[in-house]
Structure formats: structure tokens, C-alpha cells
Request: fold
Amino acid sequence: YLKDADPAVVNKIDRMENVLSRINENLERSHLDLFIDEQEEQELTDALMAKGEGKEITLDRSKKYVRRVFNNSSLYQGGRFYGAFWQGIPKEYRRLITINGHQTIELDYSSLHIHLLYARMQRHCSLEDNYVFGKLTEAFRPVTKRLMMMLINAGTEQKAIGAAHKERLFDKGWPLGIKSAKEYVEEIRQHHNPIQQFFGSGIGVELQYQDSEIAQRVMLELLPEPCLTVHDSFIVRTAAKGQLETAMYEAFRLTTGTEPDIKHKILEVTETREEQIVGLIEDE
Reply:
């Protein structure tokens, strides 16, 4: 209940609730499963427990509804979809998700927040890999990617560097020619010069709102085809791959006016495992 709220705010919330209801009603009508045997389910439970630092966490397939979570008391910060069981499982298990008895495929936007920042500047990143450039080689790609996310989300550059040290991001050493975190950040700034003004700006929550609006567009466009969101990636029946790809391109274009980079996430399983999955689906 919003007492004395701005009518525009009330209308926005009503629209979001209506959209969320449509998405969840479609998920209600869908049969979502994870085809794993008892041993694998126990292994998954152990992994979830370890991730939850000892808290009692189990796979709950009934958690197939999503909600939007906003930040800082603002309807324009955050807003991502949370709450569904597939969002909390390790990514290698997502290949084993089935929708209405069909195998699935996952597509995601590559480096989404980086592309959203370039789109704000009406620019396109010329780098072949957003996280490999200059002195920052392929061997340091995971560190570079993580540090860039910290720079986008932190309120200042110093806070980002502090968070990197807290996570022990540089414990394995420095790239050749880099001797400190500050020099590391400078190398990133130099090669991502068009968007460097956003580093240490705390813009991350605004980008999350933008990517949540893109996700909403994608899921609505797919209806009544079930579409499972993991923030910047989407899982659909394999047969709906083309439909999903089209929806993702259009949602990004309508939101930013530029072209997206979309990756196919096909987590391979062995031939024996594939036969087991098909057999289980047929039994279902």
C-alpha cells in the first residue's frame, strides 16, 4: 500500500505487477524439471549447502515463480527477477533442465553491462574481447572481468580496489608490466576510454534496471512459450531457440538503439547421459 504516492508511481507499479502476473501464470502452467538421479541430486544438495555456508538448502522444483527486487527505494535501480530454483543451481546443471518434457538451450548477452555502457555513449566496443587487451592477457581474463564489474558497481575507484583486495583478486600476481591495482585499473581505463567515466560511479544498479527491462521484454515476447531468466541469459526449449534469439535482438535494439552480442550456452553432456535424459523424458 502506497499512501499519498505519486499517481505515476502507482501506475508504474500496477503495470509491473500485471506483467509479472502474466509471466508467473505462464510458469504455473509449465512443467519445469531437472533430470538428475538420486546421487546427482545429493551432490547438487551438497554443492548448494556449501554455497550457503552450512545453511539448509535443497533443490525445490516448486520455486518456479519470479519476483522483481529493486534497490535504494527506487523503481529505476535494480529490478532484476529472482526467486526461481534454476537461478540458484550451478550453471553446469542448467543443461539438464527440461520444459514441458523437452530439452533446453540457454542463450545469453555477452558482456551485457559493458555493451549497455557503450550504447549510452552511442559507441561500439572495438575490442575483440572486452576483458583481454594490452598488458591484460588471456591468463588474467577472469581477474580483469571481475575487476571491471567492481568498477562499474562501486561508488568510487578506491572502493572497487578495496573490494578487489578483500576478495584476494591479485593473490596470483600481476600481469607483466603491472605492479599495482591502480596500474591495473589504469590499463582498463586506457582500453575502455569511451566508458571510463562510468568506472567508480555506482552505475551498476541502473544497468541492472536496464537489463531487467530487457529481460521483461524478452519473456513477454516469448509468451506463451516458457522462458526462464537468469538475469542476462534465458533458457527455452531447444525448438524455441530461433524465437528466443529474435526476441533478444529486438529487446536490446528497442532499449538501446544498438546491436547486441548474443552467445549460445550449450553445456555438453556425454552420449550416455543424453540417452538417459531422452529415456527419462519419454517415461515422463
